[in-house]
Amino acid sequence: MFDFKSLPSEVFPDNFLWGGATAANQLEGAWDQDGKGPSIADALPGGKERFAIAAQPDFKWKIDAKKYRYPNHRGIEHYQRFKEDIKLFAEMGFKCYRFSIAWSRVFPKGDETTPNEAGLVFYDQLIDECLKYNIEPVVTISHYELPLHLATEYGGWKNRKLIAFYENFAKVVLQRYSQKVKYWMTFNEINSAFHFPVMSQGMVPSNGSNDKNNVFQAWHNQFVASSLAVKYGHQLNPALKIGCMILYATSYAFDANPENQMANLKQMQDFNFFCADVQVRGKYPASTARMLHDYHVDPKKLEITDEDLALIANNTVDYIGFSYYMSMVIDETHADADASSGNLIGGVKNPFLEASDWGWQIDPTGLRIALNELYDRYQKPLFVVENGLGAYDKVEADGAIHDEYRIDYLRKHIQAMGDALTDGVDLMGYTPWGCIDLVSASTGQMSKRYGFIYVDLDDEGNGTLDRLRKDSFYWYQKVIQSNGARM
After folding, report:
1. Helices (H), 281-337
2. What is the residue extent of each domain of the chain?
3. Which residues pair with 20 in a beta bridge?
4. Facing residues of 136 across strands?
5. What is the pLDDT of residues 134-146, one digit of tens each?
6. Sheet strands (E) in 341-415
7. What residues are annotated to the active site?
8. What's this model's pTM, rounded to 2 decimal places?
């Protein structure tokens, strides 16, 4: 079925957190059940033009079921079938499971003072089901699922009022689950707003996304909110580990031309490091003034108080979670260079790399570089909380799914993590993205599959939703059993 490669058994530490990752808005479904309110993800149509639609000047977060399909509304019905799914994760041997708590399931509009008890009960059950199998929950407090009301009525994260709304939400879930959940992250891929603020900041052109003043104000408001969550979580239980989460794309200059080298340095400072610097080091980096100038942001228009800065300085995160899918190449000197696509980012094609079915450049060595760059800069524990291959899968007549391409991708990235550990990097764990097939965040497709578990559902919403084990399911089971020694 597949060949295993061997590594020295001592490469990965005994307490290494092997698992998988999902997000509430991409698999739960039940978008309007048991008191849940709509989120921004519920207002994004499915299909390859999802982001193009959201980028239109007249897009105003309206749900138009006559015109569009909304795959997130159904997801994969994890809300009803979570026990079945967690049992499958346990069969693979998961040590941890990263998932998110849907803000609008707990506070339907986001600005209420009293939570929706039915939403909390669901997460009580989900967490208890994980613990039943000795699976550590790893919870993202906000993962691309801002309550829709906060985007339409408050304008998204550029409004400082959202700090208090998030603080209330974070306090409720931290208080409820702090004795059961050790690992937390405050915001998913917070730096993704650098390219596309719709997902993480709830802003589109009609409510201010094209004005970088709004993007930077939104970031600052999120930094303050994150610090408040860290402060409260540590007061509740000093043993909690609360991290930030960024999208990391190792970047290379196209050539030795100093213009491209300088452009790549700015890419690293602005995209890979800016948000992490604030949350890990507790202060804005020295490059901030240059960055604001480059993006035509007027510092005098940003509402940043001394109290904010003190809060950020005194409540830094315990670890750095990050997603890594691909690397990118920066080229400022060749106008005719072929463009590449990727996880909310672009760049030009790298002739030394292959690409996925969706054009994402596959670069395992880039993960080793990313781990070294992050650890050299911050000296904080790292956690690879997203990594995986979106691909078309075929179900054979006997029900088998032979996804050797996914095994090859994951094996090489795990090897890169092992190499980084020998480099001296402090790496906590690995949760490959979409451990069960779910709705793609970028396209709303089901056909863009990441999981070890196949879900019988197509892009048009047809299928039984039956769960099938892929070849990668059994392969990853052996990887975990051997603590990464057999791949």
Report:
1. 288-294, 306-314
2. 17-481
3. 97
4. 96
5. 999 999 999 999 9
6. 382-386
7. 386
8. 0.96
